[in-house]
């Protein structure tokens, strides 16, 4: 059954420089301004890595089990509210790990996957 399925998938990940200022830097600048997200993106680069399909399967199963646990806990039978649909933004890192993206994500997170879930009708209590 696994015939024709590749053993690896290429994943493009962002490589951010480890830091522009040394941790030993004890000096200061009076004209210092916080770096803008655009400056950070300009200094970023991307690399392509091969991630084993089996690793991605394991990581996605684990991620989805955690999300299912969170949603199941939130779905209380005595509540008047029912979650009908859930859309998540997810990124895969260079090791094949899945990361849930929050609202304050960097502009560099444009390559996120959108996972959209609908509640199964057989799971509804009623």
Would you give an account of this structure?
This protein is an alpha+beta fold and 126 residues long. The chain contains 2 helices and 5 strands; from the N terminus they run βαβαβββ. It has helices spanning 37-43, 53-74, and strands at 8-15, 45-52, 85-92, 98-100, 113-118. The protein has a 3-stranded antiparallel sheet with strand order 4-3-5. It has a two-stranded antiparallel sheet with strand order 1-2. A hairpin with a 5-residue loop joins strand 3 and strand 4. It is extended, with a radius of gyration of 20 Å. It starts with 7 loop residues before the first strand and ends in an 8-residue tail after the last strand. 2% of the residues are buried.
Strand content: 25-35%
Number of β-strand runs? 5
The assigned structural class equals alpha+beta
Which percent bin holds the helix content?
10-25%
SSE order and pairing:
Elements: E1 8-15, H1 37-43, E2 45-52, H2 53-74, E3 85-92, E4 98-100, E5 113-118
Antiparallel strand pairs: 1-2, 3-4, 3-5
Search tags:
single chain; 126 residues; alpha+beta; 2 helices
Summarize the structure.
With 126 residues, the protein is an alpha+beta fold.
